[in-house]
């Protein structure tokens, strides 16, 4: 599937919501009619199940019993099981697009999704959207439900945030953009309180961000930010990187998965007022553990003194591309 909506429709087919024991059919026809006509059943009386139909207890047991041919595999999410049970209890939810109202968390991982389409707006109660390990390069904020609190886009091809920041979900608390293709300073300007007033957690790890001073000036406006991941970016190679961030963002609790203790804050106190210590250079140490398929130069250095044999010199060099 190329879009989020197409991937979700494929997911629904996998769950078999329209098939026995879920869905709408002869096994629960009278219940569906009763839900459409609430006055058909006298108050205080239980409706007898007509011949050929099944009770909700029997249908639910067919979903829950591990030995049932209609049970989901053990590795399926609890949400998938809950969704199937809900449509057994209320089969009328399958009419139209009402089933979308049941979904608060949507996880579509490694399904080849390239587009966050406007069909996502059908999920009017959606709070968590996980789209990791796909092929998404741009996200249009107009296609995101306003109720969204968690948006995870790690391991994608996102290289520009302009469309995402046009009308971002106002209640978003976590934004995951790790392992993408962001490079600044054109992208660093998007991480301010103007776009993310309630952001608590931000993952920008393993991108190509280089302007530490510029990024910190934007992040300092996020008053609710407590968790920040920047490891894997070129700016993380700066010698004063961690100390400068710790002192510049006093409300931060966790940086690069490491808790910030009071002792560390005291150690780096005042570093934020010394931006001249941040140099656009880094010292990189590379250790090569093992090289196979090449002669060892040391073998040719053991020739006896005065030997008339030819002297063979072997040298090697390694090229690094940045």
From TrEMBL:
Alphabetical list of InterPro entries matching this protein: Leu-rich_rpt (IPR001611), LRR_dom_sf (IPR032675)
Any single GO CC term annotated in Swiss-Prot or TrEMBL for this entry: cytoplasm
Keyword list, A-Z: Leucine-rich repeat, Repeat
Protein name from the UniProt record: LRC43 protein
Record lineage: Eukaryota, Metazoa, Chordata, Craniata, Vertebrata
Gene: Lrrc43
